[in-house]
Structure formats: C-alpha cells, structure tokens
Specification:
Layout: E1 3-7, E2 13-17, E3 20-24, E4 37-38, E5 42-44, H1 46-51, E6 56-59, H2 69-72, E7 81-83, H3 88-96, E8 102-104, E9 111-113, E10 116-122, E11 130-136, E12 139-143, H4 151-158, E13 165-169, H5 175-179, H6 199-206, E14 210-214, E15 218-219, H7 235-245, E16 250-251, E17 259-262, E18 267-270, E19 276-278, H8 297-301, H9 309-329, E20 342-349, E21 355-363, E22 366-369, E23 378-383, H10 384-392, E24 403-405, H11 417-423, H12 429-437
Parallel strand pairs: 3-6, 6-7, 7-8, 12-13, 13-14, 14-16, 20-23
Antiparallel strand pairs: 1-2, 1-17, 2-3, 4-15, 5-19, 9-10, 10-11, 11-12, 17-18, 20-21, 21-22, 23-24
Helix pairs in contact: 9-10
Amino acid sequence: MTLKISRILHAGYVFECDGTLIAFDPIFENPFSRNCHAFPDVRFDHARIRGMKPDAVFISHFHDDHCSMESLDLLDRATPVYLYCLFDELFAMVRQLGFTNVQALAVDAPVRVGAFEVIPRKALDSDVDSMFHIRAAGLNVLNVVDSWMDPETLEQLKAYAPWDMVLWPFQTMREIDVIAPSRAGAPDPRAASVLPEEWPEQLRALAPRYVVPSSCQFVQEPWSWYNHALFPITYRQFAGEVEAWLPGASVVRLNPSVSFELTPHALTPATPLPWVLPVGEQDVDYDYRPDIAPPPTSEIARHFAALGDQQTAQVLDYCRTGLAEKYADMELPPDSYFATPCIWQLSVYDHAGKVHQFRYRIHGDAIAATGDGEAPTWHTEIPMAKLYAGLALGESLTSMYMRISGAPADADIVDDPLIRCLFNDAFGAYQAAQLRRLGRA
C-alpha cells in the first residue's frame, strides 16, 4: 500500500490511499485571495474538479487563502467538510453554500476517513490555526500548514520521529515591513541566514525523511514591488540549509499538480493531478531584494481601474463619516499610541494618482475631523480601489498596498485607525462577499 501526495497550490494538497481521496485547504483559483497569483503559474480545469468526488475536505483555518467559498463551490455538496475554527459563522457559511455534512475539528481528536486517520494538532496561535497529523499506509506525515510550531506540540510530536514527511511552511512573510517600510530595519549583512533561528531545533526534533517547502507559492501582480520585498527565502536557500541541518533528509519541491508516492522505503514520482494545469516555467524562484525602494502610493494606485461613481462615493463617505463612527464604537487598547492626543492623516489615491486627504484629531476612543492647522504625526496612505475592496469585497490587509509612515518604533502598526476599523471585527468578510457573488447570501 502506498500514499500518494499531490500539490494543488499554497497549502492545498490531495492525499490518496487505498481508494480514499481527501483534500487539505483546497484552493482552485488563480489568482486567489483577490491578488495572490500562483507561483509558478497554473490554470484549473473546473469541469474536471466538479467531477471529482473527494471522501473528505479538511480546512486548517479561516483565512481566505485556505478557506474559499468559490473553490468549495466546485465540490459535491455531499462531501464531508471538516473545519478547524472557533467561530460558528464560518460553519454557517459553508452550510449556506449547500454542504450537508460540516463538522468541527478538535485538537488531538482523530478523524477517520477510509484509509486515513487525520489528527488536528495544536498550533502556536490556537485561536486561529491548526496543523494536521496524517496517518495512512503505516506512514506519518505532518502538515504544518502555515502555522508556527507550539513548543508543547513539538514535544508531543517527537514521539512519532522519525517522521516520514513534513510539509513545512517555508516562507516568513514580511507584512509589517511592506506596510510600514520606513520602520523596516536594514538587512544585517553579517546574518548567516534569514531562516528563523528556531527551525533547526524543531526540524531536528521531528527528524523527517522528506521535507516539502510548503504554504507559499504565490506572488502579487507582476508590477508589484511586494514580489521583491515580501518573501525573503528562496527555494534554493531553504533546500541548502535544511539539508545541512538534516544530513539524512531530502528536501522535495512539490510544484502545483506534482505528485509523489510515498512508502516506508522510497519516494517516487507519480501521475500529476489532471485538473491542475501548469503554465510556463515551473522551477521558478523568489527574487528578494532587501534594498528595494517602495514606489509612491500615487504610482501604485494608477495600476488599478477607476471605481464607478457609486463606489467612489461609498469610499469617500466612509472616510468623511463612517470611519469615525466605527472608530468611536471600538475600545482602544490602553497602551496604544493613540491613547495620547495626536493628528492622523489618511490619504486616499484614485486611479489617476489624485489624492483625497482627511485629517482627524484622535485621543483615545475620541476621533473628530480637523483642518490643516496642525501637522499630522501618523500618516496612512491607500489606493482608493483597495479601500473599496476592503469595504465591499473583504480583501485582506496583506494585499491592500496600505502604507504607514510616521509611526514611532515602539508603536504597534495594527493600532492604525484604518486597520482597526476595517479588520477588528470583520471575521469572514471575504467569505461573506464570496457568498454574495455566488448568490448564496
């Protein structure tokens, strides 16, 4: 008996064993999450996906690059869907899509599906993520998804070493550095590695036979400076360093559609997924440029199409009144930068690079529009098209090209008023927008 493992993209996999087929975090879209473009590039044969009959789908967490209503919409509604999520709203959304067997996952509680036993394991941020321990054909595979390893979980997982395969999240995204580039520290030329310092100890404890660089495989739009600033680790560097830490292990790259058969003795190529269609060169790598200068937001905004009159009015009305109303309804953390009086400036750039500026006086939970008499101490910039996408389409922060400057080094970037107003209580906004597009809202 063998275990076949195939890559969809990002954290998406298909596992097959003895006639049982299960999928993990399936995304059948390119781009996904609005502007995450598959890297390497692929297309999907949606007709073939609709004909696929998985025995179960497992979803590790609610982030839109792992749980997409438009991808799930392609699957048979009788497919059992197992979700790790602490929010009832997501289960309701999947049922609203028409799935009849939607179940919650619990840490360390095994789920048996045909030839498989899938055990959710505790991630470091257990309010959000889970990992998957997959057992089949006498093998143990650890799918870390894109979570960080919890120390107690690592001790628990040592008992299964040596692992047959570990799907390891190899990219450490620099979200804060691209949102607030003025705060980003210069790269240390003396640093031997950009890989997290805890990885060698963790991987040595697991002692895997095979390591797959996992949970990445996307870039932003072709013109985006993010493509050279967000992903600091290359496939080549990951393979070289991991194999140096683990002389007995092999690093195996699984591009989208690629399949392998795993046995206790070997890993051999297998027939690729027929409904994932590679486009162009596949063995591409990331081109990280630590000294890249970010373009002005006015230039970035020109890459997006003009909003309609109604959409523009929605954005400007939000900036004039809706944002302040939302902010006043929230409770500010007592240690926030905004707990002391300050002037905040929000600059919104349209498709022609024209700026609409709004200034607010903020003191704790109080916020009020103000004139130009006082210079702002905190600046937030954003393309108008992206602010609309955040308001109406549930777009996530990472892809919005928001730019923050003036924030002192000890201030928390996520205390930014626009970030708080868009995301503090916006659970499932992306999935809800998908349901509206699918006519399921």
